[in-house]
Design goal:
CATH topology: Ribosomal Protein S5, domain 2
Number of domains: 1
Helix content: 40-55%
Largest sheet: 4 strands, mixed
Distance between the termini: 62 Å
CATH class: Alpha Beta
Shape: globular
Structural class: alpha+beta
Strand content: 15-25%
Strand order of the largest sheet: 1-2-4-3
Number of helices: 4
Order of helices and strands: HHEEEHEH
């Protein structure tokens, strides 16, 4: 008997939702430019800032996360929220990558938590999913306008 007889799922290749180091947005220059010139989508308590940018890796997007020190003075609270946002991103990453790969461009993305109260994880997941849909819609409109102006 072969091991795949007992475990038929092992034969299928399932994409693993991870958030590896090369997917983190770390470039101070790109982050500064993103904050100055980036387009944004807001769905309280999240603000997603994005722009097309040439990245040094082959991934379609690099992402950074931010929580205001003014709203959450304790690092423990900020780190918890950033950890939750990273998990939301990781869970929805495959959907985002499928869309961005179809566009053929690379994007720098910053996800900022704007509320003054601690979120529940379920609330954050729901808001992130809606924010992601709005991002896809905005990128489609942006590329459509860019294509129309090129014609």
């Amino acid at each position: 008997m072969h091991s795949s007889d007992f475990f038929p799922l092992f034969e299928k290749i399932i994409p693993v939702a991870t958030f590896r180091k090369h997917e983190h947005l770390k470039s101070r220059r790109i982050i500064d430019e993103l904050m100055k010139k980036g387009a944004s989508v807001t769905m309280q308590p999240l603000k997603l800032i994005w722009m097309e940018a040439p990245l040094e890796t082959k991934v379609p997007a690099q992402v950074a996360f931010g929580v205001s020190k003014k709203n959450f003075p304790l690092a423990v609270d900020r780190n918890r929220i950033k950890r939750q946002m990273r998990e939301c991103y990781r869970e929805h990453k495959n959907k985002l990558y499928d869309f961005l790969n179809a566009s053929g461009k690379q994007y720098a993305i910053m996800l900022v938590f704007t509320s003054k109260k601690q979120p529940s994880f379920n609330e954050l997941m729901l808001k992130y999913a809606v924010t992601l849909q709005r991002l896809e819609k905005d990128i489609k409109q942006d590329s459509k306008q860019h294509n129309d102006s090129a014609d």
